[in-house]
Amino acid sequence: ETIMKRYEMVKSHEEFNEIINKGYKQKGKYVLIFSKEKEYPKPNFGIAVGKKLGNAVVRNKFKRQFRNIVDNNKFLFKNNYIIMIKREANNASFSDLEKDLINTLRKEIHEK
Asked: pLDDT value at position 1?
């Protein structure tokens, strides 16, 4: 599948916070990734974009871009993830964002 499905998203506030507070944190240039082991087979994703990044249009654009990156690289994901987009992402191209997310994920996988 290429589109991130509704059931693949972290929906509840509690789950979001739990992954952030109890999860494993990995920093990239444009993203912060929080990951946490899960009980069920499919990984879930949450994308967090702070208001400092821009207005709703800009923030939604980032969410769409990151959903697309996640969809194209699903095989890399093993846990539940919250992807926090840093302010630096404003000046990055799509391919920069993609490279950074993938490299940060790889670091996360190797350090575990």
From this structure: 44
Tokens linked to 96: 């920069």
d(CA 40, CA 71): 19
How is residue 44 written in tokens? 């879930």
User: What's the CA gap between 35 and 33, in Å, rounded?
Assistant: 6
pTM over 0.85: yes
The segments of the chain whose pLDDT lies below 50 read 1
Angle ∠(78,4,17) on CA atoms, nearest 5: 60
The pLDDT score that the predictor gives to residue 99 is: 96
> If you count DSSP H runs as helices and E runs as strands, how many of each does the chain have, helices first?
3, 4
Provide the pairing of β-strand 45-49 with 31-36: unpaired
56-71 exposure pattern, b = at least 16 Cβ within 10 A, e = fewer = eeebeebbebbbbbbe
